[in-house]
Amino acid sequence: VLIVTDPANMNYLTGYDAISYYVEQAVVVSLDAEEPFWFSRRMDTACARFTTWLSPENLVGYSEDLVQSRLKHPMQYLTAVLRERGLGSKSIGLEMDSPHFTPRSYEEIVRGLPDATFDDARLLVSWVRCVKSPAEIALMRKAGQIMSKVMQTAVDEIRVGARECDVAAAILHTQAAGTAESGGDMPSVPPLICP
C-alpha cells in the first residue's frame, strides 16, 4: 500500500486538482485494489468527482468535525477506512518528506494501524513522474510557450513608475489567457514582485 500526500503526486495519479492541501488529504494505492482511493475533506468530494477518473466508491470524504480538532484527526478516519478495506496489516509506504504530511498525521497512522509495517516511499511517485510520455512533453511545450509570453509581459510591464498592482494584473492576465491554441490557468502563487 502507498499513501500519497504530496498534492502534485496526487494529481499525477488521479487527476485531482484543487487547492485543498490545507487539510489532510491522500491518495491510497494498493496492489489489492483495482484503482486507488482519494481521501480528503467531504466538502472537496465534488471537486474530486469532476477532476479524477476514480469511481464514486473510491472518493472518501471525512466530516468537518475532524478539521482542526484537538480531540480527533482525519488520519484516524483514514486508518479506519484502511482496516475496513482489508489493508490494515499491509506493508505501507509513506511520503515521509511531503510538506503536507505532518508529524501528527504520521503518529495517527502508526497508532491506528498497529499490525502494519511502514517504509519511507518519499520519492517513489516523483521518480515515476520523471519519465515523460509524448503527451506530457507536448503539454510541457505548451506550458513553456505560455510562460515565454508571461515572462515577456513582465519584461514589458516592469519599468520605473509602474504600479506593482498593474504589473501583477498584466502578468496574471497573460497567465490565464494562455495562447491562441492553449488556454492558460491561474497560478498557484500570485506574481511575486519586489518593489
Label this structure with key terms:
elongated, 6 strands, 6-stranded mixed β-sheet, 41% helix, 195 residues
Please characterize this protein's 3D structure.
The protein is an alpha/beta fold and 195 residues long. It starts with a strand and ends in an 18-residue tail after the last helix. Helix 6 packs antiparallel against helix 7. It has a six-stranded mixed sheet with strand order 4-3-2-1-5-6, with helices on both faces. The model has no long low-confidence stretch (mean pLDDT 94). The chain contains seven helices and six strands, in the order E-H-E-E-H-E-H-E-H-E-H-H-H. The longest helix has 24 residues. The relative contact order is 0.12. The radius of gyration is 20 Å and the shape is elongated. 41% of the residues lie in helices and 12% in strands.
- Gyration radius from CA atoms, angstroms: 20 Å
Could you name the ranges where pLDDT drops below 50 across 5 or more consecutive residues?
none
Largest sheet properties: 6 strands, mixed
The strands making up the biggest β-sheet line up spatially as 4-3-2-1-5-6
> Structural class of the secondary structure composition?
alpha/beta
Helix-strand layout with pairing:
Blueprint: E1 2-4, H1 7-14, E2 26-29, E3 37-41, H2 45-51, E4 59-62, H3 74-84, E5 91-94, H4 103-112, E6 117-120, H5 124-129, H6 134-157, H7 164-177
Parallel strand pairs: 1-5, 3-4, 5-6
Antiparallel strand pairs: 1-2, 2-3
Question: What is the structure about, briefly put?
Answer:
With 195 residues, this protein is an alpha/beta fold. Helix content is 41%, strand content 12%.
